[in-house]
Amino acid sequence: MKRTLLGLAAAAIAGLAVTVPVTLLAGPASAGGDYGPDTCLEGYVWREARAGDVVCVTPATRKQTRADNAVKASRWISGPFGPHTCVNGYVWREAFAGDDVCVTPAVRAQAKADNAKAADRKVSAKIWITRYTVAPVDNGDGTATGTSVDDIPRLKINGDHFNVGRVRLYIRYNTGKLFWSGTVKASVHSGYAGGSFGKKTGVFDCAATGKPANAYVQAKDMISGRWSPRVPVRVGCAVL
Fold it and tell me: E strands, 58-193, where?
């Protein structure tokens, strides 16, 4: 019988006869720290349905998870699906494979929704580069003024999966020497996870020279302290 059949409200909901260890983690209470790739965005914490469960959820959901874990034995009976058959009105939580803690259907639905959003709630600090050129300045009299370098591509640093708030941006030579730095405020934008941004640096893109990258772009989430991966670029070319 498929596990999806366990959602029938009138059935005596059951689970496999598998005992899952539920050792809780010392998870982050907030986003104010770098907990590695599983760092949660501000406002979220690890669910801790079992040891190693680092799905990011609201504090209220983690509290509910702990409460359900604490009374799991009282909701099991021996029945058609073994010794971990749920008492009437409860279903397996299924927060992870083999999770047979009995919870209300609403709690199981929440666990499924949290799993689906897991990646979007972490400080992945993703960045990517796009290019832009400078448009001529409208003089207001039907004319426009430009410069000889307006059509040279410049670097724009984009990012998402950051906390909403301040992000520091850096362009460094491969030697570590600072070439450019700036600050941007990540905010919520439709279609992007967490805080996102786009920062025009004014730095000329020298990739057209055909020479290999001599620098990299990196961003730091100032709330958690997490760094983004490095993105290679070519900078410092002579512009006439």
Answer: 76-79, 82-86, 91-92, 102-103, 126-132, 137-138, 144-145, 154-162, 165-173, 178-186
CATH of the domain at 147: 2.60.40
Q: What residues have CB less than 8 Å from 175, skipping those under 6 apart? A: none
Mean pLDDT, the chain, rounded, equals 87
Residue 1, domain member (yes or no)? no
116 and 24 in a common domain: yes
Q: Evaluate if residue 24 carries a pLDDT over 60.
A: no
Quick one: average pLDDT of 177-190? 98
pLDDT, tens only, 79-115: 999 999 999 999 999 999 999 999 999 999 999 999 9
* Structural domain boundaries enclosing 137: 126-233
In a domain, 218, yes or no: yes
Helix (H, G, I), strand (E, B) or coil at 147: coil
Instruction: Examine the domain organization and report whether 93 and 146 are in the same domain.
Output: no
Domain count of the chain? Answer: 2
d(CA 230, CA 222): 17
Nearest alpha carbon to residue 100 among 115, 119, 81: 81
Q: Is residue 55 part of a domain?
A: yes
- The Cα–Cα gap between 51 and 17 comes to 19
Domain match, 63 and 160 both: no
**β pairing state of 102-103 and 91-92:** antiparallel
How many CA atoms does the CB half-sphere of 188 hold within 13 Å?
4
pLDDT reported for residue 220? 98
Q: Is residue 64 part of a domain?
A: yes
